[in-house]
């Protein structure tokens, strides 16, 4: 018969077993204390079990929305810069328009020409506005400086316009001919391609003025303004007409009146076009703000749900800590009592 004492665990094994038990209790206690202090499960996905998939999906959606909101803010900044630049352009046109009206078409030509030159240079400068280091009205380029020759053709806008008007404005026939020449330049039908607007004034990208971008929630925004849009052409043509001619030298008052009226009409048309573009851009900016607001509301909802999934009940965590402390203290007490037992102590 095999003695039952042979099946009893050894003293060493018992000691190791108790030590391992105490280590597990200490680890569980440390985890419980961490969860109580942070309010979140130490191992979120293990604690969630089947709910882990929901938490992963929600976090992925939150990350996508955060990235989209960030991209939308950059886009909104670019659009706002466009709109503000167009507002500044309209304001720069106003003194020339007021001078043309107050002169009665037959007043001081020198003052009107000066006002037109100032507005022309302001328009070109504002047309080269940038956002984030990029031109907002042309991509790689926007508007050529008035008196500066282009690197590719060697022509400057000032020189080409002066050449087109060099035959003078003495008669109504001259007025019609000069208007036709300028219409060809700004309309892109001049016989010499180098003297067409897109190759003379404009230096930006061709055919890419409007872009379509997603702004979240399956909403696609189409936006964009280029410096070769009609508003720019009209305003620049009208200002060029006033800035390139010695108005006081036009001998026929009717020709002078017709020339100034035509120029003023183009400037006013350009100003109205800029206002329409501003309105469109502001509407786009509002759409972006609304999209961001919807995504931020959704993120708040999702973050609340994730918080509910991963959060620890403070009362439950405190109760678990108390239970673990009690269990660990009991284990320590048993271990201390067992370690003090020996044959010698028994014989005393």
UniProtKB/TrEMBL annotation:
Belongs to the bacterial flagellin family. It comes from Sagittula salina. The keyword Transmembrane helix does not apply. The keyword Mitochondrion does not apply. GO terms for cellular component: bacterial-type flagellum; extracellular region. SUPFAM superfamilies: Phase 1 flagellin. This is Flagellin. Residues 10-140 form the Flagellin N-terminal domain. Residues 277-346 form the Flagellin C-terminal domain. One of its GO terms (molecular function) is structural molecule activity. Keywords: Bacterial flagellum, Secreted. Flagellin is the subunit protein which polymerizes to form the filaments of bacterial flagella.
């Amino acid at each position: 018969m095999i003695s039952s004492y042979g099946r009893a665990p050894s003293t060493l094994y018992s000691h190791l077993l108790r030590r391992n038990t105490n280590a597990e209790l200490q680890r569980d206690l440390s985890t419980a204390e961490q969860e109580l202090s942070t309010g979140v499960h130490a191992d979120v996905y293990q604690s969630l079990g089947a709910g882990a998939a929901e938490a992963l999906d929600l976090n992925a959606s939150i990350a996508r929305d955060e990235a989209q909101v960030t991209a939308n803010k950059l886009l909104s900044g670019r659009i706002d810069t466009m709109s503000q630049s167009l507002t500044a352009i309209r304001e720069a046109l106003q003194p020339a328009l007021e001078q043309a009206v107050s002169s009665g078409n037959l007043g001081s030509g020198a003052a009107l020409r000066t006002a037109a030159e100032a507005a022309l240079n302001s328009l070109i400068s504002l047309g080269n506005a940038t956002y984030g280091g990029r031109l907002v009205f042309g991509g790689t380029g926007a508007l050529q400086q008035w008196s500066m020759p282009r690197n590719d053709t060697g022509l400057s806008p000032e020189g080409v316009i002066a050449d087109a008007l060099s035959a003078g404005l003495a008669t109504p026939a001259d007025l019609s001919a000069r208007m036709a020449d300028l219409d060809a330049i700004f309309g892109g039908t001049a016989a010499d391609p180098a003297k067409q607007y897109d190759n003379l004034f404009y230096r930006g990208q061709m055919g890419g003025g409007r872009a379509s971008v997603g702004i979240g929630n399956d909403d696609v925004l189409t936006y964009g303004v280029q410096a070769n849009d009609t508003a720019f052409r009209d305003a620049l043509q009208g200002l060029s007409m006033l800035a390139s001619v010695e108005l006081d030298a036009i001998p026929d008052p009717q020709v002078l009146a017709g020339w100034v009226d035509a120029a003023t009409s183009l400037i006013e048309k350009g100003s109205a076009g800029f206002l329409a573009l501003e309105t469109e851009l502001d509407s786009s900016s509002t759409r972006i703000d609304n999209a961001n607001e919807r995504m931020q509301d959704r993120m708040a909802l999702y973050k609340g749900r994730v918080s509910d999934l991963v959060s620890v009940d403070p009362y439950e965590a405190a109760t678990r800590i108390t239970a673990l402390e009690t269990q660990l203290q009991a284990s320590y007490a048993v271990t201390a009592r067992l370690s003090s037992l020996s044959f010698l102590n028994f014989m005393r």
